[in-house]
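Figure S7 source data.
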Amino acid sequence: MSGKKGLAVWAVVCLCAVLTGCSGVKQEEQPKSIKIGVTVYDQYDTFVSQLIEKFNVYAGEKETETKTAINIELYNAANSQTTQNGQVQTMLEDGCNVICVNLVDRTEPTSIIDMAEKRGVPVIFFNRELVEEDLERWDQLYYVGAKAFESGIMEGEIAAEVFRSSPGADKNGDGVFQYIVLEGEAGHQDAIVRTEYSVSTIIDSGVEVEKLSYAIANWNRAQAQTKMSQMLGEFGAAIELVIANNDDMALGAVDALKAAGVRQDQWPVIVGIDGTDVGLEAVKNGELAGTVYNDKEGQALAMLNLAYELSVGGSLSKLALEDGKYIRLPYAKIGPGDVAQYE
Ligand code: GAL
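Tokens for the predicted beta-D-galactopyranose complex:
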């Protein structure tokens, strides 16, 4: 398949195709198999890859439950919107019943929407939210994700709580929380909104803050380590708080502190978002003060259920879509005491 269009297929997952044993009227109405196309902006993104892992697990369970074979064609766009557009075209030519798209550039969904509409194939966008006007362009477009502002508020609440409850957080004792921000991609809804709401929540809760610096690290641990090392070089112990837009970048800050030989009791307070496996581990061992759970299970299950119903022509009523188009899962705060529930 990859040779066909020179596009790299990340994986074609053919979940167990056992179709026997189903009797009765329903069998004739139910398709024997469906094909779901999925393309992700970057298969090496920790959160997105964990979400896809869950999606595959839930597809396997759905297959057993419904006796419908669910074939998943999975592509990595490797950060190129042009590549992703080509992948969608291939998935449409391959007869996918529905396409799930984790856009590379959330402002560029037009080609994908046009191609899908021409063939009448519904599209579920996920994790990287397009603007409402684009989602309104056709009635077979959907979005599965979360409310970015909620995660920013929770991250700010965690930071403010630590400032109030741990005397060591205000290292210079001036009553002000000096912070830096490690931001995701420029222009990504989660980066913009999380940064804004985390800081405004700390201020609204009555904690005075001072911004020392910020850096864009594209959700990436290695990039965050580099940026944090530079900021450590410039501000050193003056940094009291690291607000990271996700766990991988928070862990990049941890890596930089370790590489600089700073003792853990001298570290700034570090907060993240996602609750990835590595993020949870870091909360448990005290490297991160806390994180905010980005419900990859909930999002993966909602996407699978929606993709399934769209593929078999089922009812969407039990999926509780907002405005007929959106499914947004809630976030949750995670401190050291909560980690066990999420592992
Ligand atoms: C965010 C998530 C980040 C990154 C990003 C990719 O929701 O918190 O870790 O995965 O999506 O779009």
